[in-house]
Amino acid sequence: MSATGIGGRVSQFGSAVAEGWTRERFGLIGAVALVLITFGPPFQVYLFTDFLVVALFALGFNLLYGYTGLLSFGHGLFYAGGAYGIAIVLRDLGPIIADIVGAGISPLVTFVVGGVVGLVLVVVVAVPVGWLSVRLEEIYFALITLAFGMLGYSLIIQDPAGLTNGTDGVIVLLGTVDLGGTSIRIGGRRLYYVISAVTVVAATYGVWRVVNSPFGTVCKAIRESPDRAGALGINVRHHRWMTFIISAAIVGIAGVLRAGLASVASPGLTHWSTSAIAVIATVIGGATYFYGPIVGAFIFLYIRWAISRFPTLEAYWELFFGVLLIAVVLFFKQGAVGGLYLLRDRLFGEGDIGGANGGGGGAFDAGSQVTTPPDEEAKSSNGDVRTDRGDNS
Amino acid sequence: MTTVLKAEDLRKQFGELTAVDNVSIEIDDGNITSIIGPNGAGKTTFYNLLTGVLQPTTGSIWLRSGVEDDLADVTDAEPHQVAQAGLSRSYQITNIFEGLTVRENVRVARISHEGTRLDFRSRATGDESVEADVEELLDLTGLTHIADTPCDTLSHGEKRTVEIALALAIEPNVFLMDEPTAGMNPTEVAEIVSLIRELDADLDTTFVVTEHNMDVVTDISDRIVVLAEGAILADGTPEDVLTDERVTEAYLGSDSA
Ligand SMILES: Nc1ncnc2c1ncn2[C@@H]1O[C@H](COP(=O)(O)OP(=O)(O)O)[C@@H](O)[C@H]1O
Ligand SMILES: [Mg+2]
């Protein structure tokens, strides 16, 4: 593979697409769909952008949950971190950047700088928060992350440094790039969609590479049995810490995009109820699958939109989601993606076109699936790293 | 013969209970040592102390550090540091990565051993030398035919063998096995015993085994250490130890498993 050039890869891709329901064909369909959306009605473009951002939020969260076995209830903190990072740069550094690079191109430069600052800010926050959080496991980990998220919420509202503008949040004005006559609004729905789509696809590919790397393989091992991983020379706490930081960074990118989409960075982003959106989307889609959080985010946003079309129902949409969540947890532990696999096996016979763990013909290969749900892992493995589970026979 | 593992006056107190009572022992390479004793004698606790899972109340632990004969103090080391220093183990209750396939299990161990744990840019399956080592280990332990099977669907005996492959994948100086035949049927016991003998002959690793099944103990041991209530009761060749009166007394009635 590595020796083949671009041309070879393209022709490999072509023949893979021609052969059947391969991952390549799904990829191609997805790419075509992403392009077509650009020309949809403005509100649909907006809704789809919203979906992409929430999908990235949930995907970053699931690196820690589905792949490493740690349930965070505070990832809203990093979502907010990215959003406030870019919002504050746009507000406070916009004029300075305009002085340096000139007014015409400055909104674009400020946007990029803001995105980078947002990401860096999130990593700077995630390093100590993660370091402390990975000292705990299971419910205690969930609680400490929840506490950090709410700590962020109070700090943003109290605004001791005079940066976050309290409960109102920071308005995000993306501005218009002026290139000698042609002016382009960065915040325009279609352009912002394209920016978001490219970013989300790139970040998703990044996460996919991480979960299929040696690092990601170790994550799965830790999820399955932290004691065993430790006994093989893996520094479990350090590895969880690194995963925490990567996970937060991905969520931070989603937060940057969120700020531009919503035109505001608001304290609610780090409220636990926002953190819960990542959890809910992931559970609905299926935490045990790479694409689970994406499918879950899609279901979450489009059902919410569908309900909003019926004003009498709209007041009850949270109730509706409660019922949906109960149904998933009771009957579809593997989420929607798991349900789709089940359906496929029913329709085409098990293993016929490559089971989830089996042959190469499957649409999704074994590498894209996380095999054991974290909730089952919690039951089978001993909580304390320094406690022997092979004991007390 | 050189000493690969040494415990000095090792003691573990759980409240009033002394689970391991001033145990001093030196393990030499080239021997299979069995640690026997009735249930609750402190065998598993002793392993947990050696591997850094539990901190000893008093005493020290030393591991052979490299090619030289000198020993390094690992008393305060964490489990992963002990493993990196060359001490591997299996658990009394099988402990493997259940949700992963057999091959993925062994790959994780090789990744750990190669030190590419934090590499998030390569493909997990992309390192040819790791893949070759994985295949060799699967072959060595007779797991090649079930390499792609998820471990949660394996038989008990197969899972135990996977755990042996995992433990050996980090190329340990010493391998502590905790009751490798527990819960196995006679056929599986015979298989695992012959596997242990083969591995002991093929590898540089020194095997230490706790075991209930006395047939297995007499079959594989060059040396037997008897623990009773946390303390060493007898230590020597199988002939000497198994004819020792105190040993037969300790075993009569108190243990029939
Ligand atoms: N984590 C622990 N906390 C308290 N007591 C323990 C713990 N682990 C083992 N023990 C006790 O220590 C003694 C030795 O147990 P163990 O080492 O499991 O024996 P063996 O493996 O020889 O059967 C037993 O009395 C056991 O109940
Ligand atoms: Mg025991």
TrEMBL record, chain A:
The record, for CDD domains, names: TM_PBP1_LivM_like
Which topology term describes how it sits in the membrane?
Multi-pass membrane protein
Tell me a Gene Ontology molecular-function term this record carries.
branched-chain amino acid transmembrane transporter activity
The UniProt entry, under Pfam families, shows: BPD_transp_2
User: What are the record's GO terms for cellular component?
Assistant: plasma membrane
The entry's localization annotation reads:
Cell membrane
The entry's keywords: Cell membrane, Membrane, Transmembrane, Transmembrane helix
| Transmembrane segment boundaries | 26-45, 51-70, 77-98, 104-127, 139-156, 191-208, 241-264, 276-303, 315-332
Region of interest (Disordered), residue spans: 358-393
| Superkingdom field | Archaea
List the InterPro entries hit by this protein, alphabetically: ABC_transp_permease (IPR001851), LivM-like (IPR043428)
Q: What is its main location?
A: membrane
- For this entry, the protein name equals Branched-chain amino acid transport system permease protein
TrEMBL record, chain B:
Keyword annotations of the record: Amino-acid transport, ATP-binding, Nucleotide-binding, Transport
Give the CDD domains listed for this entry. Answer: ABC_Mj1267_LivG_branched
Q: Which domain of life is it from?
A: Archaea
GO MF entries: ATP binding; ATP hydrolysis activity
For the biological process aspect of GO, one term held by this record is: amino acid transport
Q: Spell out the SUPFAM superfamilies in the cross-references.
A: P-loop containing nucleoside triphosphate hydrolases (SSF52540)
Q: What GO terms fall under cellular component here?
A: plasma membrane
What PANTHER family does its record include? ABC TRANSPORTER ATP-BINDING PROTEIN, CONSERVED COMPONENT OF ABC TRANSPORTER FOR NATURAL AMINO ACIDS-RELATED
Q: Does the keyword Transport apply?
A: yes
Briefly, what is this protein's role? Probable component of a branched-chain amino-acid transport system.
Asked if the keyword Nucleus belongs to this entry, the reply reads no
Its taxonomic path starts at: Archaea, Methanobacteriati, Methanobacteriota, Stenosarchaea group, Halobacteria
Family (UniProt) = Belongs to the ABC transporter superfamily.
Q: Which residues form the ABC transporter domain?
A: 5-254
Residues in the signal sequence: none
Protein name per UniProt: Probable branched-chain amino acid transport ATP-binding protein LivG
